[in-house]
Amino acid sequence: MFGLIGHLTNLEHAQRVARELGYPEYADQGLDFWCSAPPILVEDFTVTSVTGQKIEGRYVESCFLPEMLATRRIKAATRKILNAMAHAQKQGMNITALGGFSSIIFENFKLEQIPQIRNIKLEFERFTTGNTHTAYIICRQVEQATQKLGIELSQATVAVCGATGDIGSAVCRWLDAKTDVKELLLIARNLDRLSCLQSDLGRGKILDLESALPLADIIVWVASMPKGVEIDPTVLKKPCLLIDGGYPKNLGTKVQHPEVYVLNGGIVEHSLDIDWKIMNIVNMDVPARQLFACFAESMLLEFEKLYTNFSWGRNQITVEKMEQIGQVSVKHGFRPLLV
Ligand code: NDP
Fold first, then answer.
1. How far apart are CA 138 and CA 299, in angstroms?
2. What is the whole-number distance in angstroms between the Cα of residue 271 and the centre of ligand 1?
């Protein structure tokens, strides 16, 4: 069995979902209540591969909300993730994906130093961030969507916002090694980490967001922002492809312009329906088929019986591992979202 640990995008979303799912005791409560709420096992489901293989999975809601970081409730945020991991392990899940902010909190607050949760010793090899598959899918979205739009990568400038992150750095490495992209623009806040990335890649221009946006034909957003930013489409090149891979979304509002194409980044489409509620809850357009690539990674590891923390730590994702997970992604019937 595989597991998925997820969270909702904000307090209002969490209250609405709690009401819909029949948890009225959570629905009318404020942030303090959510800070003390235990993880919830929301549902069990079966996933069928195009090979015919079937696997069983479970979704655990950690009850973490991004507002906990914004209001410095760090202890609550870290407790949510550790408790959800302990819960998943106790349920006997072989491999569990840490969705959205779960892996970011795990890394940023060094939670590997706290393996003992009450009577459970966390076995970290049973968890994966899912970031290798996410980075692979975003890169394939760049390659395939540009082709559809008639943007030549060899003539294109790609801006990666969140370039020094786990996913962003992997995207940069792939685009450098596997494509003939003309120019890479590297965006993040910490200049030391940007300089390290630039020297590892041996290329890339370090720019702030405002300077980078008007220069980019393609913008990949993979910054860990608890709340999205608003951008003015008039400053962008036309045409421009925006791939928003953040969860919650990095873009605060819907960009409305006929020549600016916005794609949900890091989302895969499965070839067969999955009978589950969870992707409805997070407002996927086609909830029976579409899901986060990080969740799909734990499915792929379960299909392949690769019981290992395939994606772990920070900035360790290699192009070879992206190719490896990409091959099994195709084999089991997943493809990058392109509309
Ligand atoms: P990391 O924490 O490893 O990296 C985040 C990056 O964003 C860093 O480069 C950071 O650099 C940068 N950043 C953060 N805030 C800002 C800001 N305000 N302006 C500019 N840059 C910023 O995160 P991950 O790579 O693990 O995840 C990235 C995003 O992808 C998250 O939103 C996450 O939820 C989402 N995600 C999506 C998945 C999917 O399946 N679709 C799966 C997993 C994650 P600095 O701090 O120096 O600014």
1. 18
2. 28
Q: Does a structural domain hold residue 338?
A: no
Tally of structural domains, the chain? 2
Closest atom, ligand 1, to C-alpha of 100: 34
Question: In tens digits, what is the pLDDT along the chain, a chain of 339 residues?
Answer: 999 999 999 999 999 999 988 888 889 999 999 999 999 999 999 999 999 999 999 999 999 999 999 899 999 999 999 999 999 999 999 999 999 999 999 999 999 999 999 999 999 999 999 999 999 999 999 999 999 999 999 999 999 999 999 999 999 999 999 999 999 999 999 999 999 999 999 999 999 999 999 999 999 999 988 788 888 999 999 999 999 999 988 887 788 899 999 999 999 999 999 999 999 999 899 999 999 999 999 999 999 999 999 999 999 999 999 999 999 999 999 999 998
Regarding whether 309 and 263 lie in a shared domain, the answer is no
Cis peptide before 233 (omega within 30 of 0): no
With a 6 Å cutoff on the Cβ, whether 181 touches ligand 1 is: no
Task: Looking at the structure, tell me whether residues 157 and 101 fall in a common domain.
Answer: no
| Same domain, residue pair 15 and 43 | yes
Residues 106 and 152 in one domain: no
- Residue by residue, DSSP assigns 242-289 as EEE--SS-SBSS----TTEEEEETTEEEESS----SHHHHTT-SSTTT
Q: Answer yes or no: do 7 and 84 share one domain.
A: yes
Residues 250 and 237 in one domain: yes
4, 101, 109, 167: which to mutate for ligand 1, most atoms within 8 A of CB? 167
Domain assignment of residue 339, yes or no = no
Distance, CA of 32 to CA of 39 (rounded, Å): 15
User: Does 189 share its domain with 119?
Assistant: no
CB of 294 within 6 A of ligand 1: the answer is yes
